[in-house]
Design goal:
The complex is a heterodimer.
Chain A lengths: L1 H16 L1 H21 L7 E6 L5 H12 L3 E7 L2 H9 L5 E5 L3 H7 L5 E5 L4 H23 L24 H31 L1 H7 L4 H29 L9 H25 L3 H19 L11 H7 L3 H15 L7 H26 L1
Parallel strand pairs in A: 1-2, 1-3
Antiparallel strand pairs in A: 3-4
Helix pairs in contact in A: 1-9, 2-7, 2-9, 3-6, 7-9, 7-10, 7-11, 7-13, 9-10, 10-13, 10-14, 13-14
Chain B lengths: L12 E10 L2 E11 L4 E6 L5 H8 L7 E6 L2 E2 L4 H6 L1 E4 L11 H11 L4 H15 L14 H12 L6 E5 L7 H16 L3 E5 L3 H6 L2 E6 L2 E6 L1 H7 L5 H10 L3
Parallel strand pairs in B: 3-8, 3-9, 6-7, 7-8
Antiparallel strand pairs in B: 1-2, 1-4, 4-5, 9-10
Helix pairs in contact in B: 3-4, 5-6
The chains are: A alpha/beta, B alpha/beta.
Chain lengths: ~375, ~250
């Protein structure tokens, strides 16, 4: 047992002697949370609108006021011609053009409908559709208030849209579980594999293998420091998301932590497996990048919903641990569902941990023969 | 470990018909030899002759396909763990940790071999003193010159006072002066009763050995003292002996 502690101490020394990697390891979650939280957001906030209003009557004034009253839209300029609108949109000065028809109020009151155009900058389609969605729902409710029963709805039922669990459409609700999955996977798998492969590369592994150290201790001692670091990162992410981004932990914190620990185990054992395949640090990094990073980013449902993917990708996604983890975190943390709703995810993760761990220990032992 | 020189009866390494086969390839083909206590045994051979495989079997890293052997009194097939605990090992590539201080490397390897903290610090001080490195106690290993690192690695390899130490091309990439100094260390250790098993590509180093074996195609072609080998092959140096053997057809 003493040997084990000697090795754990050595691993911690390796990590802390390399100041740059400590900085990266501890700051990565902070940077990611802040980036995703404030820069890469799909939230509609302070969108600049140019308004073309030839009618200038009570109705258009009221609609414009309603639209720009909240924090979503900001009036940028009143314009009179299509050319102006085009120039503003092209120049990126505004993201939305609101275009009333002539004699707007009159048509609305007497014919029950009036034409109104919304033009958004479609270079970012996700953003554009959110903007249109927000603007139309505000305009719709304003029209209702103005025209009331006179409004001719064309026999189409107006859906009353409500977003459960995330009423403000905050994108942080979506990416916090994603970032958790990404960071834990990255630190555990990539760093563990690199640290083992480094010993192979520098030849120290050879010396250790000739020594009476038990291979199991050798491997476990590599895993312990990154486990500790992952727990620190998990805490950082949770604290930041609760206090900085205002994403609540609605469900049981206890089970969220347990779930995360299981996921950390899966990632660590994947790292061990990679280390037994790769023989250079560069290879370990590439394998981690290709096998872990890309699928986690693209196929885990972190960025794109899995249900919208082609069947084959949906099948592949089932084999990605992060997919199960992120799904379960969403349920536990955001939706506040009870434990029994994530039993499937939890068991899949436990099974994956067992399989990867067995495989990596076996491959390590085989290499010794 | 007591230095009873009357105990030379039992060889430190004893190998009989040791064979290792990988698939269809016979890396080591039924080699037999003995190494006595305090000997400096040179284990020579061209690259791919099977040196490394043979050495791995002796160190308990590889299981022999057939044949038997014992190292430091333990059977290499049945008790590889006991073998490992009783040998020292230093590899051709530098094998200390660059990002640890000199004394931390000693502490680590002392701990691996089960030495007590006090023993470790005493041995470390003594060894550093003997090497004249006392001032480098707290230096990071990466900032030391290659020759110094090699000497330190050797000291670390014998920190637990093993009966035998395996050196796998220990002087690769070191200048001639440092190589000479390194061999002085080897002689000191041998005088203290530590058996040295060394592989090398430098034929001048082969001259320093008590006995050398030369491997070719998995078998030992020659085994004797450097003087006898030179006599037998009518050569002026070990270099010539090596070339004659390497070019001979079997």
């Amino acid at each position: 047992m003493r040997q084990f502690f000697i090795f754990v101490r050595k691993e911690f020394l390796h990590i802390f002697r390399d100041g740059r990697s400590v900085l990266i390891l501890l700051l990565m979650p902070v940077v990611q949370i802040i980036l995703f939280g404030f820069a890469l957001t799909n939230e509609v906030k302070n969108v600049k609108v140019a308004i073309m209003d030839p009618s200038r009557d009570a109705a258009t004034t009221m609609i414009t006021e309603r639209l720009t009253a909240g924090e979503y839209f900001r009036p940028y300029k009143m314009i009179t011609t299509e050319q102006q609108a085009d120039a503003l949109l092209r120049g990126g000065e505004v993201s939305l053009i609101l275009n009333y028809s002539e004699r707007f109020r009159e048509k609305l009151m007497h014919q029950g409908s009036a034409r109104l155009g919304l033009t958004a900058d479609g270079t970012d389609p996700n953003m554009a559709s959110s903007i249109i969605l927000y603007a139309s729902s505000i305009i719709r409710s304003a029209e209702l208030d103005i025209a009331g029963k006179n409004l001719h709805s064309g026999g189409v039922a107006i859906p009353n849209v409500r977003l459960l669990y995330n009423p403000q459409m905050k994108s942080s609700y979506n990416f916090v579980p994603g970032v958790m999955g990404l960071i834990l996977m990255l630190i555990c798998a990539m760093m563990t594999s690199i640290s083992i492969v480094r010993e192979k590369e520098t030849g120290t592994m050879e010396v250790l293998l000739v020594s009476p150290v038990r291979p199991l201790f050798l491997i476990l001692s590599k895993v312990v420091p990154y486990f500790v670091l992952s727990v620190v990162n998990l805490t950082t992410i949770l604290l930041l998301s609760v206090f900085l981004l205002g994403v609540p932990v609605t469900g049981s914190l206890f089970w969220l932590v347990i779930l995360s620990l299981v996921f950390i185990f899966v990632s660590l054992s994947m790292g061990l497996l990679i280390s037994s395949i790769a023989s250079t640090q560069v290879a370990a990094m590439l394998i981690s990048g290709l096998v872990l990073m890309m699928p986690v980013m693209l196929l885990s449902g972190m960025i794109y919903p899995i249900s919208n993917m082609p069947d084959i990708l949906q099948v592949i996604a089932q084999f990605i641990p992060a997919k199960w983890y992120i799904e379960a975190v969403r349920k536990l943390m955001i939706q506040g569902l009870p434990l029994n709703s994530v039993v499937t995810e939890l068991s899949v993760l436990v099974a994956m941990a067992a399989i990867y761990l067995t495989a990596s220990l076996r491959s390590f032992r085989d290499r010794l023969q | 470990m007591n230095n009873n020189s009357g105990e030379n009866m039992k060889p430190v390494i004893f190998v009989e018909n040791l064979t290792k086969v990988f698939g269809k390839f016979t890396a080591v083909n039924s080699i037999s030899f003995e190494v006595n206590k305090g000997e400096i045994f040179g284990f020579l051979g061209a690259n791919g002759a099977g040196k490394t495989t043979a050495m791995k079997m002796l160190c308990g890293l590889l299981k022999p396909t057939s044949g038997r052997g014992s190292v430091a009194g333990f059977d290499i097939t049945r008790e590889p763990e006991r073998v490992k605990a009783n040998i020292g090992y230093m590899s051709q590539r530098f094998s200390l940790y660059d990002d640890l201080r000199v004394w931390e490397n000693f502490r680590l390897f002392g701990g691996i071999y089960g030495l007590k903290e006090r023993e470790i610090s005493q041995t470390t001080e003594r060894m550093l003193h003997e090497l004249g490195f006392t001032q480098e106690r707290n230096t990071m290993v990466k900032s030391l010159p290659a020759g110094w690192k090699q000497k330190l690695a050797f000291s670390v390899a014998i920190i637990h006072n093993p009966g035998i130490v395996f050196l796998d091309e220990p002087t690769g990439g070191v200048d001639p002066k440092a190589r000479r100094q390194f061999w002085e260390l080897i002689y000191d250790a041998a005088e203290r009763g530590i058996t040295i098993f060394v592989t090398t590509h430098y034929m001048d180093e082969a001259e320093y050995c008590s006995r050398v074996s030369i491997m070719k195609d998995g078998a030992i072609d020659a085994l004797d003292t450097p003087a006898n080998l030179k006599l037998k092959y009518g050569a002026k140096s070990m270099d010539e002996v090596f070339y004659q053997l390497a070019n001979s057809k079997r």
